[in-house]
Design a protein that fits this description.
single chain; elongated; alpha/beta; 393 residues; 3 domains
């Protein structure tokens, strides 16, 4: 095990984990001075000691000992069958040059400009209650394929994997028991998310595969997730992704049909209120000036790219109770009316929409299509939202 740079790697991993030398030694069940002695080159550890330290730090023992990468390391960037971003762009242009309609929310992230706007907004997002969710997920005690649908910048998904790696069920080894798959139709976001996940999980040797594609066609490439043989699937949809579908129940029923009994689904969703304006004040107050509102500019990006950034756009927030498939839910929609100077008439688009749900009815609805809720965790008072874990029956 003797290697002159072992202490440097141990120190690097320890500092990245935010642990002191004594704290690392304590968590690994070793003598207080163990980490100090190794980092300063005063002691060469046994195999058992290296494995204990690696398990706490969520890195590969081989990496600490020799700087070696994990066995069967996988780094892939794939495209889903039939995925054609150029065709999606053409369909969006056709809609926007028409008489009006609903803009698919996924189109907000397709082009580099929209993706860059989203990335700026995402920097202000707070974390999710992932630690408790990770503990419950780990109770399955099986190797997992983490399938992140709509992964975007992959911040939450990467953090979830980091938390899982700290638990005994997924302790680091030369052959990782976790695989991470990032699925998104936005090439700019997927590329950035893949790079973030790789940099964060590199030392742990977690195999990462990025798949550019529309996950609404997921059954067509479920075999991509079995690179190392069949294993338990954990499908994640974070960032309120579930609320972007016109019919979320149909999506869960049809697009997740390839999941097997015992597979898990982790998603977050907004919680509704008797007075919707109390938690979505946009419903009862004026919209900020478009030029001063980064968020609104992002949501209107598809419209302004066609009609010009100086186009006169009237934005009206609207409460909809008829556009939701799950009972007890509603949607806040932004109706954008633009005056077309070339055609001399106004066109109205539903430029954005976000849904809020009754938690009990949400759980009951997913149970009706084969997914039983096995855990849920609230965000906080400022963010009336829930992170929920489901299991396939």
């Amino acid at each position: 095990m003797r290697h002159e740079t072992m202490g440097t790697r141990l120190q690097e991993a320890r500092e990245a984990a935010g642990l002191s030398r004594r704290g690392l030694s304590d968590q690994a069940g070793l003598a207080n001075q163990t980490a100090f002695m190794i980092e300063t080159g005063r002691r060469m550890p046994s195999v058992d000691t290296v494995e204990r330290l690696a398990n706490v730090l969520g890195v590969s023992p081989a990496w600490i000992a020799y700087g070696a990468q994990a066995v069967r390391r996988i780094r892939n960037y794939l495209s889903a069958p039939g995925y054609d971003p150029l065709k999606l762009g053409q369909e969006q242009a056709t809609l926007l040059h028409g008489c009006g309609g609903t803009i698919d929310q996924s189109m907000l992230y397709l082009d580099p400009y929209g993706a860059a706007q989203y990335a700026l907004i995402a920097e202000t997002y707070q974390g999710l209650p992932l630690k408790k969710a990770a503990t419950q997920i780990a109770s399955c005690k099986e190797a997992l394929s983490v399938i992140a649908l709509g992964s975007g910048l992959a911040r939450h998904e990467t953090r979830l994997v980091e938390l899982l790696l700290k638990l005994p069920a997924f302790a680091a080894s030369d052959e990782p028991s976790l695989d991470l798959f990032l699925v998104d139709l936005s090439q700019p976001l997927l590329s950035a998310g893949y790079r973030h996940a790789y940099e964060a999980l590199d030392r742990a040797g977690v195999p990462i595969t990025a798949i550019e594609g529309d996950f609404r066609t997921l059954p067509g490439f479920m075999d991509y997730f079995e690179a190392r043989g069949p294993r338990r699937n954990l499908v994640t949809m974070l960032g309120y992704t579930i609320g972007n579908f016109s019919n979320e129940l149909a999506f869960v029923r049809d697009s997740l049909v390839g999941c097997r009994r015992g597979d898990m689904l982790l998603l977050d969703f907004g919680v509704g209120a008797d007075d919707p304006a109390s938690i979505d004040p946009i419903l009862n107050q004026s919209i900020p000036n478009r030029q001063r509102s980064t968020h609104l500019a992002f949501l209107l990006n598809p419209v302004t790219r066609v009609y010009g950034f100086d186009a006169k756009i009237e934005v009206v927030p609207t409460l909809s109770t008829t556009s939701c498939a799950i009972p007890g839910s509603y949607a806040v929609e932004l109706h954008a009316t633009v005056q077309s100077t070339s055609e001399g008439k106004a066109k109205t688009f539903i430029a954005a929409s976000w849904k809020r749900y009754n938690p009990k009815q949400f759980a009951a609805a997913l149970k009706s299509v084969g997914w039983e809720q096995i855990g849920s965790w609230e965000f906080d008072e400022v963010r009336p939202s829930i992170l929920a874990l489901f299991r396939r029956n």
